[in-house]
Specification:
single chain; alpha/beta; Rossmann fold; 4 helices; globular
Length: about 110
Protein backbone atom coordinates (compact mmCIF):
# COMPACT_ATOMS: atom_id res chain seq x y z
CA UNK A 1 0.00 0.00 0.00
CA UNK A 2 2.80 2.43 0.90
CA UNK A 3 4.62 1.85 -2.38
CA UNK A 4 1.43 2.31 -4.41
CA UNK A 5 0.29 5.49 -2.63
CA UNK A 6 2.07 7.80 -5.04
CA UNK A 7 2.54 10.41 -2.33
CA UNK A 8 4.43 10.89 0.93
CA UNK A 9 3.58 8.48 3.74
CA UNK A 10 4.08 9.42 7.38
CA UNK A 11 4.52 6.58 9.84
CA UNK A 12 3.81 7.28 13.52
CA UNK A 13 4.77 5.31 16.64
CA UNK A 14 2.33 2.59 17.74
CA UNK A 15 1.95 4.13 21.20
CA UNK A 16 0.34 7.26 19.79
CA UNK A 17 3.10 9.59 20.94
CA UNK A 18 4.22 12.18 18.48
CA UNK A 19 6.74 14.02 20.64
CA UNK A 20 9.60 12.71 18.51
CA UNK A 21 7.76 13.50 15.29
CA UNK A 22 10.02 15.33 12.84
CA UNK A 23 12.97 15.31 15.21
CA UNK A 24 14.73 12.70 13.12
CA UNK A 25 13.76 12.01 9.51
CA UNK A 26 15.07 9.38 7.12
CA UNK A 27 13.98 9.78 3.53
CA UNK A 28 14.40 6.73 1.33
CA UNK A 29 15.14 8.29 -2.04
CA UNK A 30 14.76 6.96 -5.55
CA UNK A 31 14.84 8.89 -8.78
CA UNK A 32 11.08 8.71 -9.26
CA UNK A 33 8.17 11.11 -9.52
CA UNK A 34 6.85 10.00 -6.11
CA UNK A 35 10.16 10.63 -4.35
CA UNK A 36 10.45 14.03 -5.99
CA UNK A 37 6.91 14.87 -4.92
CA UNK A 38 7.68 13.84 -1.34
CA UNK A 39 10.66 16.21 -1.22
CA UNK A 40 8.60 19.08 -2.64
CA UNK A 41 5.77 18.46 -0.12
CA UNK A 42 7.95 17.84 2.93
CA UNK A 43 9.68 21.16 3.83
CA UNK A 44 7.08 22.31 6.40
CA UNK A 45 7.63 19.06 8.32
CA UNK A 46 11.36 18.77 7.68
CA UNK A 47 12.11 22.32 8.83
CA UNK A 48 11.24 21.16 12.36
CA UNK A 49 13.67 18.25 12.23
CA UNK A 50 17.04 18.18 13.90
CA UNK A 51 18.36 15.44 11.62
CA UNK A 52 17.30 14.75 8.03
CA UNK A 53 19.07 12.01 6.13
CA UNK A 54 18.64 10.94 2.52
CA UNK A 55 19.38 7.32 1.67
CA UNK A 56 18.90 5.62 -1.66
CA UNK A 57 18.87 2.20 -3.23
CA UNK A 58 21.28 1.74 -6.07
CA UNK A 59 23.97 -0.25 -7.77
CA UNK A 60 26.78 -1.59 -5.67
CA UNK A 61 29.55 0.93 -5.16
CA UNK A 62 32.85 0.10 -3.47
CA UNK A 63 32.58 2.98 -1.01
CA UNK A 64 28.74 3.07 -0.78
CA UNK A 65 28.94 6.85 -0.86
CA UNK A 66 25.97 9.04 -1.78
CA UNK A 67 25.50 9.74 -5.46
CA UNK A 68 24.78 13.02 -7.24
CA UNK A 69 20.98 12.66 -6.92
CA UNK A 70 21.26 12.23 -3.13
CA UNK A 71 23.49 15.28 -2.85
CA UNK A 72 21.22 17.32 -5.13
CA UNK A 73 18.23 16.40 -2.97
CA UNK A 74 20.04 17.65 0.13
CA UNK A 75 21.04 20.83 -1.70
CA UNK A 76 17.39 21.47 -2.54
CA UNK A 77 16.39 20.95 1.09
CA UNK A 78 19.14 23.24 2.38
CA UNK A 79 17.59 26.02 0.29
CA UNK A 80 14.54 25.64 2.54
CA UNK A 81 16.72 25.94 5.68
CA UNK A 82 16.64 22.21 6.35
CA UNK A 83 19.72 20.52 7.79
CA UNK A 84 20.31 17.55 5.53
CA UNK A 85 22.90 14.83 5.06
CA UNK A 86 23.13 12.34 2.23
CA UNK A 87 24.11 8.99 3.74
CA UNK A 88 25.43 5.83 2.18
CA UNK A 89 23.54 4.00 -0.51
CA UNK A 90 21.86 0.65 0.02
CA UNK A 91 23.12 -1.93 -2.45
CA UNK A 92 20.47 -3.25 -4.82
CA UNK A 93 21.02 -6.82 -3.61
CA UNK A 94 20.76 -5.90 0.10
CA UNK A 95 17.87 -6.59 2.45
CA UNK A 96 16.30 -3.15 1.94
CA UNK A 97 13.84 -3.37 4.86
CA UNK A 98 16.59 -4.25 7.30
CA UNK A 99 18.99 -1.66 5.89
CA UNK A 100 16.42 1.14 6.17
CA UNK A 101 15.51 0.08 9.71
CA UNK A 102 19.19 0.07 10.73
CA UNK A 103 19.65 3.56 9.29
CA UNK A 104 16.48 4.83 10.96
CA UNK A 105 17.42 3.65 14.45
CA UNK A 106 21.21 3.93 14.16
Amino acid sequence: MIMAAGRPVLLLPNDGSVSALARRVLSAWSDTREAGRAVVDAPPLLQQAQDVRIISLGPDKPDASPDEADLATCTALVRHHIKCKATKRIAAHADVDRSLTEQAIG
